[in-house]
Amino acid sequence: MKRTWVAVTAIVAAATLLTACSGGSGEGSNEKVTLTYANWSEDQTPAMQQIATEFEKANPNITVKIQTLPWTEYWSTLQVGAAGGTAPDAFWMLGDHFREYAKGGQLLDLSDTVKSAGIDMSVYPKAVTDSYTYEGKSFALPKDFDTNGIWYNKALFDAAGVKYPDDTWDWQDVQDAAKKLTDPAKGVWGIAAPIDAQGGFYNTILQAGGNIVNPDGTASDFGSPAGVAGLKFWTDLQAAGSSPTLKQLSDTEAVSMFENQKVAMYFSGAYWALRFHKNPDLKGKIDVAPLPQGVKRATVTSGIGNAGYAGSKHPEELKKFLAFLGGTRAAEIQAATGTVLPAYKGTQQPWLDSMPEYHLQVFIDAIDYSVPLPVQGNASEWQGLAPQFLTDAWDGKKPVEQAAKEYQDAVDQVLTKK
Amino acid sequence: MTNVATKSVRRPTGRRTGVSTPGAWSALAFIAPATIGLVALYLWPFLSTLVKSFEDVPAFGDATFVGVDNYTTLLADADFWKALRNSALYTVIVLLGIPVAVVLAALIEQVGRGRAVYRVLFFLPVVTLPVAIGMVWRFIYNGDFGLLNYVLSWFGVDGQFWVADPRFTIFAFGAVGIWMGLGINLIILGAGLQAIPKALYEASGLDGAGRVRQFFHITLPLLSPSIFFVTILSVIAALQMFDLIFIMLRSVNNTALTDSKTIVYLFYEKAFVQFHQGYGAAIAIVLLIVIMIATALQFRLQKSWVFYG
To answer: Per the database entry, which stretches of residues form a coiled coil (chain A) (predicted)?
Structure first.
């Protein structure tokens, strides 16, 4: 009996070894290889599938499996997978998570691929390529980018007799229009003013002439006069009653308020275009204009990068796939399906043409005055501090100067750690 | 039969190493699936969490031993105490649901036919995805268009932002927690009720005891072991609450999140959002200790109220 068990164990172990060997012998040969490619967007999955199919056609020995994870699970799944050796081969990356992954050696270094495949990095917005460079090496090729504009509801503007926003607007124009557009009786507000960093106060702080985080990444700028001015832009809108309250915006997100035509203006990115375009209730009713000017013009920009897992079993095939994802064909597919604004220069026309009813050119023009979304230090930690420190200022319970100072102190403490 | 008897007599005289006979080997083989699962899925993660709680663990790469640093930081962390308070409050509210469950279970027991229908209705939340539950309740609690405020308006009560105002969030979650736990509790209590001999009710009825009196003097004492069991389970589940807060607050940038974090949410945030896995592990270990204390306390207290026939 005992011997039988030993024999069984030995056979199982041998079988495991054999399968392990056959799995590893695929390098360089034309053996069938399967790559996984993870994303967090149901909306974009069809375009990703189309890109994968084209890549498979050109590389018959490689199969690409698209994996779509819900946003709420994406980062924890990726982190656990990377640490445990089971991460997808290729996946979407974001600037504020990038540094931890690059620093931890989890990402495939693409510097050689860029050279050997002759990829010209200048075709991508510099702000985006910079955010995926760590210690001089490229770890992701930009997939798309987003800048911000004013999404506005023409029907609500017409009803209130207010002129549409255009590129001449400054801060005061926004404040005035928001006030005029607000009609409590109808449950309509001029603007949505949530505590939103990327679509909101980061932009206005930059427009006021400030930084968000200083260039060497050791301190933030929220407590400075420009920082306070940029935050005040939003608290003023709250104080004037031109926006739903924070509580209302917590219950019903700003974008839903805009889609439900409860707010006339919504500062946000190009990434909503397809969703708005597909919403029959908004047909012919909305458009987009550039962000207003403060002391100067500015918008933050960020973009998704396509990165590869350093622990992938098929690094050569993976590099090939990532180069394809960074190329013109992948960009064109994304543009033509209206999915997102592709990062590859000159491929954006099909995206503009896919939704001709909007002045989407404003998002492309904004590249000229765009500033990268700050990702210094432990970005996901300090970026999460905003609601904790700014809620009282938004609710009018604390002077903005004081809240901004406390917010800055807390952020700086995270930035200077380690 | 005789064969078995001789074997069992012989066993104690054998060698002391447990796995010596062929029978023992096959016994080991039979328990292997469960044992391997237990070790791989519970024991190993627990031990590695324990080790991590004494380390500084970056998102990736090598951990460094830091002694009890994580624990001292934790005890000085205002966020931790706030989360502990929120979890405790939530647990107390969920416990208030147990009397409700006891009364409901007794009422359902009275229903003759159709009892199963009630059981299914109350059990539905248990088999529904927490994500779906969170989304539906977010709609019910919505300050502007929510169902709850609409119903309250019939009675002239002013609506509140139940899940956007940190003064109410834990109570709002507590109500959902009671509703979610009801199904399981009713099943356990229902089984306990059926074990009570019907003769006791008949005899007390002849002696002139009414329904209410029977409930307090027969049902409640004889059901107390089941109630105790339900209480233990509820406390453990309540202290681990995470999904409601995640779906109703975090996924929608709700600003009430700051003041509504529970222990497990704080753990998630530290370990998976901010990449402080060692600190997260320390939170998990402290939660384990809290649950152990709470359970031990209940076992101590049960002597005064649980009646084992």
So the answer is: none
Task: In chain A, count H helices and then E strands.
Answer: 20, 13
**Nearest-10 crossing angle of helices B78-110, B220-239:** 150
A85 in contact with B, Cβ within 8 Å: no
How far apart CA A252 and CA A362 sit, in angstroms, is 27
ipTM given for this complex: 0.80
One digit per residue, the tens of pLDDT, for chain B of length 309 reads: 444 444 444 444 445 555 566 788 899 999 999 999 999 999 999 999 999 999 998 878 788 999 999 999 999 999 999 999 999 999 999 999 999 999 999 999 888 788 888 888 999 998 988 889 999 999 999 998 899 999 999 999 988 999 999 999 999 999 999 999 999 999 999 999 999 999 999 999 999 988 889 999 999 999 999 999 999 999 999 999 998 888 888 877 788 999 999 999 999 999 888 889 999 999 999 999 999 999 999 999 999 889 886
Task: Tell whether B267 is within 8 A of chain A (Cβ).
Answer: no
Residue among A85, A104, A84 nearest A93 (CA): A104
- Which residue in B231, B240, B228 sits closest to B290, CA to CA? B240
What whole-number distance in Å separates Cα of residue A134 and Cα of residue A141?
13
Fold of B76-302: MetI-like fold (1.10.3720)
Helix (H) or strand (E) holding A269: strand A263-269
Domains of chain A: 33-146+303-354 (3.40.190.10), 148-301+377-415 (3.40.190.10)
Alpha carbon of residue B179 to chain centroid: 13
Of A247, A288, A145, A227, the closest CA to residue B168 belongs to A247
User: Which residue out of A72, A93, A247 would a mutagenesis test of the B interface target, given it has the greatest number of B Cβ atoms within 10 Å?
Assistant: A247
Give the closest of B143, B251, B258 to A72, CB-based: B251
Q: Where are the domains of chain B?
A: 76-302
Q: Does A396 touch chain B (CB under 8 A)?
A: no
